[in-house]
Amino acid sequence: MKIRMGKSNQSLIIVISTLLSLSFMVSSISAKEARYPEFGNGRIPQIKAKASEYMVSSANPYATEAGLRIIEKGGNAIDAAIAVQMILNLVEPESSGIGGGAFSLYWDNANKKLTSYDGREKAPMLADGKLFQQNGKNMNWWEALAGGRAVGVPGVVAMLEKTHKAHGKLPWADLFEDAISLAEEGFEISPKLGASILNKTNPALGRYEETWEYFFPEGKPIAAGTIQTNPDFAMTLRRIAFLGAKGFYKGEIAMDIVAAVNEATDNPGLLSVSDMANYEAIERAPVCADYKEYKVCGMGPPTSGGMTVLQILKLLEDKNLAQYAPLSVESAHLFSQAAKLAYADRGKYMADADFVKVPVEGLIDSDYLKERAKLITEKDMGKATAGAPPNADTNWKDAKSPEQASTTHFSIIDKEGNGFSMTSSIEMAFGSTLMVRGFLLNNQLTDFSFSEEKDGDKIANRVQPGKRPRSSMSPFMVFDKDDNLMMVIGSPGGSRIINYVAKTLLGVLEWNMDIQNAISMPHYVNRNGNTDLEKSTDAISLKEGLEAKGHKVSVRDLNSGLHGIVRTKEGLEGGADPRRVGKALGK
Ligand code: GLU
Asked: How far is the CA of 429 from the centre of ligand 1 (A)?
């Protein structure tokens, strides 16, 4: 099977597709309003969206609009989510897609039931703790991520099919129509995608022929504003629309994925057709905790997101944060201390609970966290060490697994009041940079610890065959005391996701901010190290005050992509992150 196109076909296809896209540009650009406002100072203006019946907030206007169309046609939140994800794969390919994995929460409003779904990538059965070692040493992260080595079995299609079979209303195939037409007719390259290609956010972008041809037609990066088609992706979607998930996990698409992974000769992987055929998405119990009068729920292992966000909230519950301004030294200090304690536990205990014992209940146990909260004082605590939560195996060794900023999050509330919160990722921007049939493959296995053990003790998040790498993805929902859904939220941002989501939850629940203000608020972040303040924002005014408390402060870009919805007395309110190019809209 041919993974990369031969040279002769290539030039013919370039000529034909250039002609096609030129003719399309003439007919459509003049008719089209500018879809994306200008980035000013790295931010776009975002105003709070309002609606009475239903709402979608996602990282791209095409996706938000497609989700709304599905709901207008009688679809529910799950149906809309499938359309949103397929469009995002097309228009925000650097962040998520069918070549990657996802976690989601679904709120079934009629039955007052919350379910969570795990569509995380799995390590191939041939992979083991030596996957990221060369000559007895850990590989360089940047070398590990490109090519086949870090590609896990993708989970998005299986997860969406499972949610749709359980709760969907409209026929599966109908949910792909918008993405297929947009892929065939063309879409406008967003400023975010244009900049990511131009700056090669992923240095390996273009290393492999198929990816080069798509993102650098005629050797030049596709620029923001260009109208782009992706006929290969349209064909892929038609197949999945017609055959369901088996059209992806078995047969020619699966074989092409396996071939691309194994034939990336500079850094081949270990994926097999049976890894593909045996993949299953899993319905799991969500993790919930009470925070004041609210019930706050996230996703359990293999993501660390749910437990770590809940730990931060619980550690702060008795600190009366509301007495301080959200952007004050006191708030940033307390938040960062809670985050340090939570990240220390995350590093030691959190991994795929199907492989290692994760003390899920113990980690969010109120008494345990009340004791831990006593470690928070007026001064910075330095590096926090992990605690000993109830039922924990304390022999695990802490490990780092760096995660970079790509990924996407979208939130949906439909006419019946059902909610969907999905964070979806191919890990690094452009993932492994391998492209198959119009979509990119993930490099999610780099979320594993590269080392197997430390000082003779095993690391919980080490690579094991069939295991899912620890994640930080944190799709969340909040309920009031009568079990009414009141908030849907999540974000990309690598392991900083946890900070972004926890801080936005506090913005709404503690500081009574509206969702847009809570999302737009400048960031302060701590992952058990420096306190990061968001560059070019008012957050840097906190620097001196934090340093006086003993913090090591760094000022940097903090690229969240928070997309959320809150139900207020007046109706639905939606927010989209000014740091990306998305939109919240509703009716
Ligand atoms: N791979 C990361 C995770 O699963 C997400 C990466 C990102 O947000 O950029 O937690």
From this structure: 10
